[in-house]
What we know:
Elements: H1 2-26, H2 29-46, H3 48-51, H4 84-119, H5 121-135, H6 139-150, H7 154-180, H8 184-191, H9 196-204, H10 209-232, H11 244-251, H12 260-286
Helix pairs in contact: 1-12, 2-4, 2-12, 4-5, 4-7, 4-10, 5-7, 6-7, 7-10, 10-11, 10-12, 11-12
Amino acid sequence: xxxxxxxxxxxxxxxxxxxxxxxxxxxxxxxxxxxxxxxxxxxxxxxxxxxxxxxxxxxxxxxxxxxxxxxxxxxxxxxxxxxxxxxxxxxxxxxxxxxxxxxxxxxxxxxxxxxxxxxxxxxxxxxxxxxxxxxxxxxxxxxxxxxxxxxxxxxxxxxxxxxxxxxxxxxxxxxxxxxxxxxxxxxxxxxxxxxxxxxxxxxxxxxxxxxxxxxxxxxxxxxxxxxxxxxxxxxxxxxxxxxxxxxxxxxxxxxxxxxxxxxxxxxxxxxxxxxxxxxxxxxxxxxxxxxxxxx
Length: 295
């Protein structure tokens, strides 16, 4: 009975924590605006075939470089006559999928290294030196080096960006673990004979989630921007794939005659990156990293 009561109390406290966090978040108007933009982008990516009329890679050389608000092409066309709206919509799929994949892979690696380094003192020195080595490389150059080794593809872009994300995530998790493992309830679990794995997964990791969620949200912005940057340099999406960075690269030669070819995908990148950043800021303010939801 006592165990059931304790579990119910813990569950209620977690639910209260989530509700309070959500209430604090919605009070931040800028964060709410960013969240709306993100939701719209996700819906746009999911229902891309339903909200577009034209094939994003189909060329129409009789309708090249049409300006914005042209008949049948409200965002115009590019130098191959491809509909800009369709390419922007389908490009959101690429940006979100690659960005999300990179963040998830980075979190898996970063959380694993951070948990091991923070919990096991003997591994701390070795793992943190590896992290420091990765930090020694500028992020975008590290990603370019990895792609040069693995080859040019969107999958390799996601892998490269995820490896770039691991050191920062590991540092954040390690710091949280070092603080949490000193708490009395962790010492009590050890006394009761709980295994290290159980303590790390069930009791330490949940209390690291606040900084991890904030990191993941803001890292999405970095990952999307990095994906666009690498594609712009020719290391990511390859023509005729609709991807915002490659669209800017292809449109830069037409900046004066057809500026919409560059400006439209640029605005798309700006909006989604800005949105993830402000939502991350809002979550950081709404979440209380010092709140122990297991107490």
